[in-house]
Amino acid sequence: MKPGAPPLLLAGLALPGAACLLLFFLLPLGMIAAEAFVGGGSGFVRLLQKGEFWTGLRNTFLLGVTAGLVSLVVGFAVALHLSRLSETRRMSLLLMISLPLTFSGLVVAFGFILAWGRAGFFTIALNRMFGVDAAEFARFVYSPQGLAFVYAYYLIPRVVMLLLPVLVNFDRAQLSAAESLGASRLRAMLSILLPQVAPSALVAFCLVVAVAFGAYGTALALVGSGQANILPLQLFAMVSDAGADWPETAALALILTALCSIVMAAGEVVSIRKETAH
Questions:
Q1: Which residue spans within 175-219 are E strands per DSSP?
Q2: Residue 157: which residues within 8 A CB-CB, separation 6 or more?
């Protein structure tokens, strides 16, 4: 778009996006907020008085941070390896890595059940090769701790796609210069590469943590709504209950939305500061 474009043309181009934002975000959010503040916000009071809510909040943070850290470490290693390959090989591998992003949470959960469940391929293989108790081993996948492992499956591609452009455009001559001056390869990466990639890595971490905070389909399919006490499953159980306290349910939805928004905003602040610095 040219700098001198007419204001009416700019407004017309922005209209579809503004309509979508209004109809599918602001309007539903406003209706939920109105429901949450029925009775002067008593739904928040009832929700915050429940020990189950605070336990779910702690588990949600633990799950999100754990899944985010695992995804960040693995995703960084994968992106670093891809950045060293030729463009043809890189794009071919990136296509396969990004496939999990096309799957729904239910498909991911079913795949992990087939692979790591009690009768899963890997579980049976470990049982026959090393005598591992299939029931005990499979219990890990169905536990809240196993959710972080499962979540990382579709969070790692997000990290890779965010970090790969940064690593591809990184000037590796800096590492060669540091090594020529006597620094080890690990020291050069820690002192030169990581500080420059850190802002983008933090943005990727915030993104996957926010996704883990709000995801519920995979957890619901794996452990059900009663075995893992996390906020998304609490919200699902309350919405599914015909006799639920709707102001309290709306309050939980707003709190969960606020948590995800705060994490995403932190990543955006880092991104803006990075662009300003450059």
A1: none
A2: 75, 97, 98, 99, 100, 101
Instruction: Please give the Cα distance from 259 to 147 (Å, whole number).
Output: 19
pLDDT tens profile 191-231: 889 988 988 999 999 999 999 999 888 888 887 766 678 99
CA–CA separation, 215 and 230 (whole Å): 10
Which tops the pLDDT comparison, 220 or 143?
220
Torsion of CA 176, 180, 186, 187, to 10 degrees: -110
Q: What residue ranges define each of the domains in the chain, with the CATH number in brackets?
A: 42-100+155-277 (1.10.3720.10)
Instruction: Give the C-alpha separation, 63 to 148, whole Å.
Output: 6
Tell me how crowded residue 219 is: count the other CB atoms within 10 A of its CB.
25
Q: What is the pTM of this model?
A: 0.87
Question: How many residues are there in the chain?
Answer: 278
- Contact call for residues 43 and 36 (beta carbons, < 8 A): yes
- Tell me phi and psi for residue 184, to 5 degrees: -75, 165
Residue 43 gets which letter from DSSP?
H
